[in-house]
Amino acid sequence: MASSSAISQGSAPIQRNKAAEVNPQANHDKPQQPDVAFSMAQLWDGTAFIAQTAVVTFSLSLSGRLLTRPLTLFSWHPLSQLLGLFLLLQSVLVLQPTRTAGQKRVGQTVHAALNLASFAAFAAGFCAIYLNKERNAAAAGAASAAHFTTLHGALGATLTAMLAGQHVVGLTMWAAPALYGGEARARSVWKLHRVSGYVSLLLLLATFGTAAGTGFVRNALEIKSWVFYVPMALIAVGVLPRIHTSKLGFSTKKA
Q1: Topology at the third CATH level for domain 45-248
Q2: Could you tell me which residue ranges the Cytochrome b561 domain spans (predicted)?
């Protein structure tokens, strides 16, 4: 029985090859994607469409409101953070749909580039608000300004530190896995990197949510809180269902 089964299984590829020879057009009608094929359209697949629609509409509407006002040093804080949010979301989504080894390699390269760009934007926004407070304090005759005294400021500072560590670990794992004792050990650290990445994204959404309660948003821009809350919730709805729990080490099955 075993030999009979083996023969029947072994003959299957031969039969398929013969069928292809009889009807070669069947192979040409269906496009064949190489292992390295990677399409940026994957960024909009499935629930990602919800997240992308939310971040684009939110970023454009808030940027438009900001640009109708005179640009100041402070203006670069929200503008840079919006750019950072958009780029960071792309860096997360770009890895979620990868299937083959080739797609993962390309995805990781794009992921690293987007992360570097997003961190540059976040760092610029952080510097803008920090320097703006220092300048205002100096104009008022104070020795220095009080920083990170609000929930929004504290979350922002925590997030910036987390992202800095996240980027250092991610880049070194990708470029020099030997630093972690070899590729096998780096792979285990990679799972922690993924978990930390999703935690950072949720913290970023929370930080944007707390911005709705700042005096600038309420008094200067006169924007209702739901304009911040709804897009942040939709981004989470668009990202979280695409998580592969097996890649986080929580299960053996792919989500």
Answers
A1: Four Helix Bundle (Hemerythrin (Met), subunit A) (1.20.120)
A2: 43-246
